[in-house]
Amino acid sequence: MSESPEPVREPVLQTPVPLAPVLQARGLVKEYKRVRAVDGIDLRVDAGERVALLGPNGAGKTTTLLMLLGVITPDAGEIEIVGKHLPHDRSEAMEQVGFAAGYLPLPERLKVDEFLVLFGRLYGIPDPAPAAALALERFGIADLARAMGNELSSGQRTLVGIIKATLHRPRLLVLDEPTASLDPDVARRVRNGLERLCAEEGTALLVTSHNMVEVERLCDRVVFVSGGRVVADGTASEVATRFGRDDLEGVFLHLADAENAEEQAS
Amino acid sequence: MRFNTDRVLAIARRQAYVLQRAPQRWFDVVVWPVVDAVLFGAIGVYFGRQHGAAATTAAFLLAGIILFHVVFQAEVSVATGFLEETWSRNLLNLMVTPLSELEYGAGVALFGLVKLAIGVSVVSLVALALFAFEITSLGFALIPLVAVLLFVGWAVALVVIGLILRLGQGAEIMTWGFIALLLPLSGIFYPVNALPGALQPVAKVMPTTHVFAAAQEVVRGHPLPWGEVGIAAGSALVVAILAVFYLTRMLATFRKRGYISRHV
Fold this sequence. Notes:
By secondary structure, chain A is α/β, with parallel strands linked by helices. Chain A has nine helices and ten strands. In chain A, the strands form two sheets. Chain A has a six-stranded mixed beta sheet, with helices on both faces. A four-stranded antiparallel beta sheet of chain A has the order 2-1-4-5. Chain A starts with 20 loop residues before the first strand and ends with a helix. Chain B has one domain. Helices cover 76% and strands 0% of the residues of chain B. Chain B has helices at residues 5-21, 26-50, 54-87, 91-95, 101-131, 142-167, 174-185, 200-204, 207-219, 226-257.
């Protein structure tokens, strides 16, 4: 019996598949009394993308984040998270989102493992205890499982907050100043953990930080906000080049100076 | 909107941890009931002796204070359950989860029923042990009366939560303040016509007034006046609808004006 010849395989052309947006916000506006905190912000974050939302204090970052999380209602604009529209589908959208903030304490009268199990259940994990134990182990703080939330240092609290935010393996992780209270060693562990999470799970990351070095290390893209508007959007080097600065810190200081000058003039 | 019972149970368990670990929270569910039972039982015995009817007068006052503790415990347990989230700055953590307002309320109310059961049991047991008054002697009449009071307690709690959302933590005093307003106006220990004339119309539109009027009839040995119960249930429904409407408006204002910044 003669062997049939191997069929000739056509080379498969790998056409780049456009990444689905995990988060898409268009024309966000928020005004408090006579101050326009957010003035027409558009933002898109794709699956697996690590994006930093940067800007001086009062630029509108936290208001923007809180609108994206459905906690503040925008005056205008649309928000879509994994195809779910806010505010109508807020609950379904939030099943795919994790949030942690460096400034938030752990609730009093809960032990760390109880806190993680509580939030695991709120995010729809049927039995969150094993996942919580594993996550504590991964971040090297398994010994804190039975500690009360108010006994932790600020760095430990931040780590537990990040574990809480990632326990349900969200498609989008939103972090507000996550490493503000961490020493460089712990901050590096957090950064490495986040990079691994984004690479392995395809989790998109939207982070605010005042640590420009950390942002340059962690994020693929930076969005600079000033006076409630997006003033730059690109890679760290693209943004720095556009403003004629050496790095993101230079851009940050330039924008802060500009805002201060504007405030003084008015 | 999906209603997830696991989330409701998670919130109820969170409230249980708070009661377990916060000794001051036991004040509402144990200390106040004991104080009220001793106070009103003793007043009843003292004034009753003057007219040769100590047991009847004590029973009248004790039935009133025990039923008052139904509305008090229902309201305070839900309102302080919410306040606990503001005191421990946990509101933002909860608001960014899939948890809906209804699920949260159900979880707090569910554990509130446990606190209510403890509080009402304490006041009833003290009344029984010290004054030989048995609240169960009111029989099945207790069921509709307690149901209406529970409903009113929850409705008042929703209004208090709405005020805290709108005005911030400074409004927490209303948790106990609102319920204190019910005490004189509801005719718990006296008929409404004992109130000053200007206050009587206010008392008459309150559902609690009709509940206590009905309870007093039963304590006197008369059958449950279903007409009073019907008025109480109808007006409680109106109060509940208004409370839900008010809370919904305040929650919308809270989200619109970014008041979450007061709680982070």
